[in-house]
């Protein structure tokens, strides 16, 4: 709990739930008759509604990107390092909107919600989603807020995929697209990691084909294991070695000792898995990873990213991190190369970091400088 809120914090924030009664036709062919989106805002929308920035979250993210919900909070929102007065996304200049995506488990309509057609929890019957469905629902939220054009759409990882989709689906409604630690599509290795995580969940005896809430159970062990697998891929070898090495939490290698040896990294991963499985929904995790797998920016453009980006009208900032092997700098350079070939304005930075894919979330001086200087070029 902070004794007092930091001067560069957006302060205390309250999530807002917006209900949309107009049916939403999804890419899978099914329709949601109505749905809720939970979001937060930071800063003030100017008179011209020209200073709005949309934050698109990654796989396990949500609407609480900055500030505190109460003075009892142990930590702020997940991107508080970069959102706030004087920070990269400066709330003295920008009106920031951060939402929990459709299908999420933090208040927006998703697998834990009640299906109005049956009166029961959706569970595994919640419709499959694509990134374009999130963008469509976000556009409706923008309409509700009176925002006809975003100053910028910003996202890391899966959030970066949403930002790029915005640039193609609503090119006239976005002036800047900021894509951090992302890719045009997933590699086979990435899809394999996601499938392994899903199999950990679905193999849990308490999963019950996704009907666990109706059964009064929860696949906590499977979800914890899925998170452990995922978390390993978000870190780098050097970063893990520097933070944990081969340090022991318990036990000894002394001859004759019968105490089971436990490494610090084992304890850390178990903690991450247990913590995550206590706050996230298993069906949502499956849904989000499938949306990640299915994303391919250029599929509808003859598998040609240059052709895809030819439809964009905005400026781009693309950022990668040297130790990110899940979304490597090579994948970001593919985005940059396609944009250059399409004749689109793009800035690119590769940041030296030991933090792997998680680098886009943690404090880093060079990253902050690049991010801040680009955001300062945006006219509002």
Automatic annotation (TrEMBL):
GO terms for cellular component: cytoplasm. It catalyses: L-homoserine + succinyl-CoA = O-succinyl-L-homoserine + CoA. Residues 51-361 form the AB hydrolase-1 domain. It is an enzyme of class 2 (transferase). The active site is at 157 (nucleophile), 324, 357. Its EC number is 2.3.1.46. It is found in: Cytoplasm. The keyword Transferase applies. Substrate binds at residues 227, 358. Transfers a succinyl group from succinyl-CoA to L-homoserine, forming succinyl-L-homoserine. Belongs to the AB hydrolase superfamily. MetX family. It comes from the Bacteria. Keywords: Acyltransferase, Amino-acid biosynthesis, Cytoplasm, Methionine biosynthesis, Transferase. Pfam families: Abhydrolase_1. The record marks 326 as: Important for acyl-CoA specificity. One of its GO terms (biological process) is homoserine metabolic process. Transmembrane segments: none annotated. HAMAP family: MetX_acyltransf. The keyword Lipoprotein does not apply. GO terms for molecular function: homoserine O-acetyltransferase activity; homoserine O-succinyltransferase activity. Pathway: Amino-acid biosynthesis; L-methionine biosynthesis via de novo pathway; O-succinyl-L-homoserine from L-homoserine: step 1/1. Homodimer. This is Homoserine O-succinyltransferase.
């Amino acid at each position: 709990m902070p004794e007092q809120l930091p001067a560069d914090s957006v302060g205390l924030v309250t999530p807002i739930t917006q209900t949309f009664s107009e049916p939403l036709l999804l890419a899978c062919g099914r329709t949601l008759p109505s749905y809720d989106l939970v979001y937060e805002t930071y800063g003030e929308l100017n008179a011209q509604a020209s200073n709005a920035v949309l934050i698109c979250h990654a796989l396990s993210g949500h609407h609480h990107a900055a500030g505190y919900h109460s003075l009892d909070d142990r930590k702020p929102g997940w991107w508080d390092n970069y959102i706030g007065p004087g920070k990269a996304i400066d709330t003295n200049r920008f009106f920031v909107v951060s939402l929990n995506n459709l299908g999420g488990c933090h208040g927006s309509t998703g697998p834990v919600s009640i299906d109005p057609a049956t009166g029961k929890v959706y569970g595994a019957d919640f419709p499959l989603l694509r990134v374009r469905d999130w963008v469509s629902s976000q556009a409706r939220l923008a309409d509700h807020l009176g925002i006809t054009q975003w100053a910028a759409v910003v996202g890391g990882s899966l959030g970066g995929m949403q930002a790029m989709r915005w640039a193609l689906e609503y090119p006239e409604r976005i002036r800047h697209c900021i894509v951090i630690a992302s890719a045009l599509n997933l590699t086979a290795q990435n899809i394999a990691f996601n499938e392994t995580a899903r199999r950990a969940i679905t193999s849990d005896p308490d999963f019950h084909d996704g009907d666990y809430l109706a059964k009064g159970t929860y696949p906590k062990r499977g979800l914890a294991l899925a998170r452990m697998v995922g978390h390993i891929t978000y870190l780098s070898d050097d970063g893990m070695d520097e933070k944990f090495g081969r340090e022991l939490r318990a036990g000894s290698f002394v001859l004759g000792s019968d105490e089971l040896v436990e490494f610090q990294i084992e304890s850390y991963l178990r903690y991450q898995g247990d913590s995550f499985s206590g706050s996230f929904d298993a069906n949502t995790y499956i849904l989000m990873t499938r949306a990640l797998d299915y994303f391919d920016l250029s599929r509808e453009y003859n598998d040609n990213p240059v052709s895809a980006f030819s439809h964009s009208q905005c400026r781009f900032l693309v950022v990668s991190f040297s130790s990110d092997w899940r979304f490597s700098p090579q994948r970001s350079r593919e985005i940059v190369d396609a944009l250059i070939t399409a004749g689109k304005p793009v800035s690119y930075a590769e940041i030296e970091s030991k933090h792997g894919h998680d680098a886009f979330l943690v404090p880093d001086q060079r990253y902050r400088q690049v991010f801040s200087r680009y955001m300062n070029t945006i006219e509002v």
